[in-house]
Design brief:
Layout: E1 3-5, E2 11-13, E3 23-25, H1 27-37, E4 44-47, H2 48-51, E5 59-63, H3 66-69, H4 72-76, E6 81-87, H5 92-108, H6 120-137, H7 146-149, H8 176-183, H9 190-210, H10 221-247, H11 256-270, H12 272-295, H13 299-312, H14 324-338, H15 346-367, H16 369-373, H17 384-439, H18 444-453, E7 461-474, H19 481-505, E8 507-513, E9 516-521, E10 530-531, H20 554-557, H21 559-582, E11 596-610, E12 616-620, H22 622-632, E13 639-642, H23 643-651, E14 656-664, E15 668-675, H24 695-702, H25 710-726
Parallel strand pairs: 1-4, 11-13
Antiparallel strand pairs: 2-3, 4-6, 5-6, 7-9, 7-10, 7-11, 8-9, 11-12, 13-15, 14-15
Length: 732
């Protein structure tokens, strides 16, 4: 392995809009690259700037090779080079200790991921226990604090308030939006509350008819109205349930009236205002009926009858007045009904129950004290009116405590559900962001395999029999900040052009190295001869009609060369348009001469994911090396191809000019060809012996008709022009 090391200044960042990759640029980066290429295998080739930061007594250092001393870039910048032959530090224990120190620094200071070791489990346990303690602190339990009785808690913005401190004494959220969301929940228990209210209403009517003396027929108007309204509301609440019990999942056509009832029911259970109105109506009307029953009693007549009963020892008329204990039990039941409805404010329910209690206590101790005093009691030493009041108060207190506990539990659960939904939304957003980033780093068919199927450090590869590889290098670029901005704009234009080719023609951007743009055509999983996974991606087959799918015939797969050359020609047109725009900007006019050397080769390649961290999808094989050599030995403003690729292009009717024998490192002198391109950046065509699978596609991607088709020429030209204008190829 050859290694080149240089120290200096550089620019780091991300350029382009597709296949995002963190990279570095600058003169010192280029010098380090030259040190690698001119180094000696098995040794480290360093510069004088790097040597100045090392201890010369520790290493065996020799002068750099002659090839490095004669290199024009190193000579121009007067870079002296050295070869490190040996590390004189032989103490293995000290080396391991130093390595451990460096590893500890990298973990603590650089935030790297620690390696799995024996101490990892202990660290995970500590983290787990810390999270448990934090979650327990947020639980709705705590030590007794008098301040919490009144909802008094000092809120600090930098401290997360425990859950039990986020509710007032009335169990109301401190956050008004959260309280509003809680009350606006759909009340799916509404029908059961209505059924209980209807039962209470029927009981009141029964008591009024059977156990009291009716004074006048008009006294039945209010109970009749109340019972009718309750019956209708209960029917609406239960109608959908009855239809479900009757028809189930069977298809059924409901009448218009049924649909209206369904919509009314959905409106009621989904509207907090309507539910509160119905709740107040039931509570107020029920207590009003109870008061009407009590007020039917004539106190003077009851007192005279009671005295006569005691004097003359005869039984008084049973229906002369209401039964006190029946009335008290009914009021207790109505207090329970007051707390039955869900998703009604606890303060409102408590207030209504207190009003009912106070109103009934007034009747017990002031309005009908004689009636309640002479009612039946089981304790002769305890006055009957106090027994009635005690039953009402105990019922109220019991229901308030029970409802507070239930409301507290419901609000805690609701708060947890809200937090869970927030965490789920954050997790989904994070997952979507990761997926978007991965799709902008790896090919789409690799993302699912990498995320779901690929184990850690497991090898993933794809074997393709026919892939066309392209290297395109922008010439004469000085790597300073201003030039880097221009480079980013040009690469972004290339990426915008790539979107069309990637979607329909399986052209994939591989990476950018310095000013060199690397792409390949034919890296579609459906074309792979073999992969490390037996199952192929099914998602790509869903869009067969929109993508360029080659058959298994080798001749058909050779069309990737035509597509790759067409993309290279469009890149040259894009660069020409960019150069024309930069000529109007005085500061950018001298950055680049607007030329680009392109090399293309084709053949069998291997593709896969490289590295355990910061994964990168790359390709290897003889076509990759040959395409790189075609670019380095090519001519600015031309597309140089190998002999095999030239033969394929000539079959498609694209002229290829024989350049001659060109020396290629590792291969010696081989014949190379230049793709025929005229002054207007159009292909120079010849008589084709074969045509692409889709003639329209060939005219669109080359932006001018390569073949003569007068009947479709106008439509194709318009389509090509529209595509060019969309991808920044129009004049400014």
């Amino acid at each position: 392995m050859r290694i080149g090391v240089h120290s200096g200044n550089l620019f780091a960042g991300v350029i382009g809009e597709a296949k995002l990759q963190f990279d570095i640029w600058g003169l010192d980066v280029t010098i380090a690259n030259v040190l690698e290429s001119t180094g000696v295998a098995g040794f480290v080739h360093i510069s004088g700037a790097t040597l100045s930061n090392l201890s010369e007594q520790r290493y065996v250092i020799e002068d750099g090779p002659e090839k490095a001393r004669n290199h024009p870039l190193l000579s121009k910048h007067r870079i002296t080079t050295y070869i490190i032959r040996e590390d004189l530090q032989k103490d293995a224990e000290e080396s391991e200790e130093n390595f451990g120190e460096l590893h500890a620094i990298s973990l603590s200071d650089l935030g790297g991921r620690p390696r799995l070791s024996d101490n990892t489990n202990e660290s995970l346990k500590e983290i787990f226990h810390a999270e448990l303690r934090e979650e327990f602190r947020k639980m709705p339990v705590s030590a007794f604090n008098p301040k919490t009785l009144y909802g008094i808690y000092r809120r600090r913005e930098e401290v997360n308030i425990p859950l039990y401190h986020q509710l007032t004494i009335c169990l109301k959220y401190l956050d008004p939006d959260l309280e509003k969301a809680y009350l606006k929940q759909t009340d799916y228990m509404f029908k059961y509350s209505m059924l209980l209210g209807l039962c209470v209403g029927y009981c009141l009517v029964y008591i009024e008819i059977m156990d009291t003396k009716i004074i006048c027929p008009t006294c039945m108007i209010l109970p009749a109205i109340v019972i009718i309204v309750q019956t209708v509301l209960t029917f609406v609440a239960w109608y959908k349930k009855m239809c479900w019990k009757r028809f189930g999942n069977e298809p059924h056509s409901y009448s218009r009236i049924s649909c209206i009832i369904f919509r009314v029911h959905e409106k009621i259970i989904g509207s907090m205002i309507i539910r509160i109105i119905i709740y107040l109506f039931l509570v107020v009307s029920g207590f009003s009926v109870m008061c009407l029953i009590v007020m039917t009693c004539n106190r003077e007549e009851f007192e005279m009858a009671y005295i006569e009963e005691r004097l003359f020892h005869y039984e008084q008329e049973l229906m002369i007045c209401f039964q006190p204990w029946v009335a008290t039990n009914m009021v207790s039941l109505m207090i329970c009904l007051t707390f039955t409805f869900a998703h009604i404010s606890l303060a409102l329910k408590t207030a209504m129950a207190v009003l009912e209690t106070v109103g009934y206590l007034v009747m017990i101790f002031f309005q009908y004290e004689f009636v309640f005093h002479h009612s039946v009691t089981t304790n002769p030493g305890f006055r009957a009116e106090y027994a009635h009041a005690l039953l009402i108060c105990i019922t109220l207190l019991t229901m308030v405590v029970k409802e507070r506990q239930l409301e507290f539990t419901n609000k805690i659960n609701f708060h947890w559900r809200v937090e869970l939904r927030k965490k789920e939304a954050d997790a989904n957003l994070t997952n979507h962001s990761i997926t978007i980033i991965l799709n902008n780093i790896l090919p789409s068919h690799i993302v699912d395999v990498y995320v779901n199927s690929l184990a850690k450090h497991e090898l993933y590869y794809e074997n393709y029999q026919m892939v066309s590889v392209m290297f395109a290098m922008l010439m004469n670029f000085e790597m300073d900040l201003r030039s880097l901005r221009v480079l980013n704009e040009i690469i972004a234009e290339f990426d915008m052009l790539l979107l069309f080719y990637k979607e329909y023609y399986s052209v994939e951007k591989i990476k950018i190295v310095g000013c060199t743009y690397m792409a390949a055509c034919g890296l579609n999983l459906n074309f792979a001869g073999s992969t490390s996974k037996t199952a192929k991606n099914d998602s790509t087959t869903e869009r067969v009609s929109q993508r360029l799918l080659f058959t298994q015939d080798e001749k058909e797969r050779e069309e990737v060369v035509f597509v790759m050359v067409s993309y290279a020609l469009d890149m040259m047109r894009t660069l020409a348009k960019c150069n024309k725009a930069y000529q109007g900007i005085p500061g950018d006019r001298s950055i680049t001469d607007g030329s680009m050397a392109i090399g293309i080769s084709s053949g069998e390649v291997m593709a896969g994911i490289v590295g355990a961290s910061q994964p990168h999808y790359d390709i290897w094989g003889n076509p990759v090396n040959m395409a790189s050599r075609m670019e380095t030995t090519g001519l600015p403003g031309n597309i140089q191809v190998t002999e095999e690729s030239a033969k394929i292009l000539q079959e498609f009717g694209i002229a290829c000019q024989y350049r001659g024998l060109t020396f290629v490192k590792g291969r010696g002198e081989i014949p190379t060809f230049l793709v025929g391109i005229d002054d207007n950046l159009n292909f120079i065509t010849t008589a084709p012996t074969r045509s692409p699978s889709h003639v329209e596609r060939s005219t669109v991607i080359s932006l001018h008709t390569t073949y003569s088709h007068p009947d479709v020429l106008d439509d194709i030209s318009e389509l090509g022009s529209a595509f060019v204008s969309r991808h920044a190829l129009e004049d400014n």
